[in-house]
Amino acid sequence: MTLLIKNGEIITADSRYTADILCEGGSITRIDHNIDAPAGAEVVDATGKYVFPGFIDPHTHIHLPFMGTFAKDNYETGTTAALCGGTTTLIDFVIPGKDEQPKDALQTWREQSEGKACSDYTYHMAITRFDDEVEAQLRDIVADGITSFKVFLAYKGAFGINDEELYRTLELAEELGVVVNAHCENAEMVAALQQKLFNAGKTGPEWHEPSRPVEVEAEGTRHFCRMLEVTGAEGYVVHLSCADALKEAVEAKMRGVNVHVESLIQHLLLDASYAERSDFEGAQFVMSPPLRTQRDMAALWAGFETGLVDTLGSDHAPFDTEQKEMGRGDFRKIPNGIPSLEDRVRMFYTHGVATGRVDLHKFVDVASTRPAQIFDLFPKKGTIQLGADADLVVYDPSYEGTISADTHHMNVDYNPFEGMTVRGRCDVVTVRGNIQVRDGEFVGEKGIGKLLKRPLSDAGE
Ligand code: URP
Ligand code: ZN
Ligand code: ZN
After folding, report:
1. Which neighbouring-strand residues pair with 45?
2. Beta strand pairing status for 65-66 and 69-70?
3. How many CA atoms lie within 13 A of 39 on its CB side?
4. What residue's CA is closest to ligand 1, atom 2?
5. What's the gap in Å between 66 CA and the centre of ligand 1?
6. pLDDT digits (tens, 9 = 90+) for 229-264
7. DSSP per residue over 59-89, as a string?
8. Which residues' Cβ are closer than 6 Å to ligand 1?
9. Which of ligand 1's atoms lies nearest the C-alpha of 61?
10. Residue with CA nearest ligand 1 atom 3
């Protein structure tokens, strides 16, 4: 399909100008003034609108077997919701069971996604056990273009690994040159605190946060950063939620540790009081690390403003209200996760850009360019330039709407931002030149999303 986007204000991480963009064969082939439409081209008038590079969500759980159930989205619903919110590429986590081989888990995720995804996508490979056989398989998986790992320092007895396994994972990552994502909470401390609170009769969702206080996350973050320092591996702290953990990561950065920091839209906009809502409504706001204080939220915003936080993720993990009921009477059993894939970009625009807190370029950087650079997708993804994939978002900044589960596209029966105002709408969203969204609604072809194999590069360093 040939597509011509006319007169939009093109915004990248480091440039801003008005021009036309011609897309042919899935790529951007010309950027210029007054481009005449080739015969048969689809023309989009972007006058008065921004044109952003397609946004990249570095942290989603579309397929997620977790805590005795499965997250609610599938690749069709999840990527449809992503596109309606401007996300054209997402990175999901392949998470093997403790006794499962990595290649078998990868095969499961591929079966879930291939022919179903409507946006492009790729995977981080989680390591839930490390032994010689796992190591051999990981080498093949990296050679086949899945070039990032994930470890959980949390979730004792489930996904969590011990220090010996962590050390071996980081040594392998350093040798292969792959980046390691880490969920940084001290699993032993969480388990002990959970038991103590539960034994004291503190069973409701409001006790989830006290069972994983900021010290637990700061300790996990420091631990991971020190392990990176010893092994020389490149790391990425996922869903960093609080000032204390940010301090640990920043101190590591200052020491020269090669570590990146991701924070989430939930942690920027929602505080711990949401998990204290009555009648078990608080369970909708249970995730790990938990929602924190207004002070922590301010620290994260400052981290984005100053560049100490590198990327914006969603950690989309949708469990509906019926699934959350599994933890009534025992907060330890509430499936952890808050859906936010669809609203990540627009809510960050609304509360970051429209308030003047974060500039437009930083917004593009954290929600598109930096994830592409760190995870070896750049410059095909993450920017607007000749030869890049024609993944584009025509954004109408004058639109004002209200977030609601009644109108969202995620396959979950609540929205954590219900009733909040949102500024801007994704008028047109393209994936490799295919128009997938118009006026905020999916109009495209299902199943065209591609699994992106990622050759290693050093763009993120
Ligand atoms: O609560 C969360 N974050 N659920 C998803 C799994 C994870 O830890 O990222
Ligand atoms: Zn996590
Ligand atoms: Zn996650």
Report:
1. 6
2. antiparallel
3. 0
4. 337
5. 9
6. 999 999 999 999 999 999 999 999 999 999 999 999
7. EE-SS-EETTEE-S--HHHHHHHHHHTTEEE
8. 61, 183, 239, 287-288, 315, 317, 336-337
9. 5
10. 288
Which amino acid type is present at position 56?
I
Residue 61 C-alpha to ligand 3 middle, in angstroms?
A: 6
Ligand with an atom nearest the CA of residue 313:
3
Cα of 238 from ligand 2 centre, angstroms: 7
**Would you list the domain boundaries of the chain?**
54-374
SS (H, E, C) 343-392: CHHHHHHHHHHCCCCCCHHHHHHHHHHHHHHHCCCCCCCCCCCCCCECCE
Residue 122, strand partner residues: 91
- How far away, in angstroms, is 315 Cα from ligand 3 center? 4
- 164-213 pLDDT, tens digit per residue, is 999 999 999 999 999 999 999 999 999 999 999 999 999 999 999 999 99
- Ligand 1 atom with the smallest distance to the CA of 287 is 1
pLDDT digits (tens, 9 = 90+) for 72-113: 999 999 999 999 999 999 999 999 999 999 999 999 999 999
CATH architecture of 54-374: Alpha-Beta Barrel (3.20)
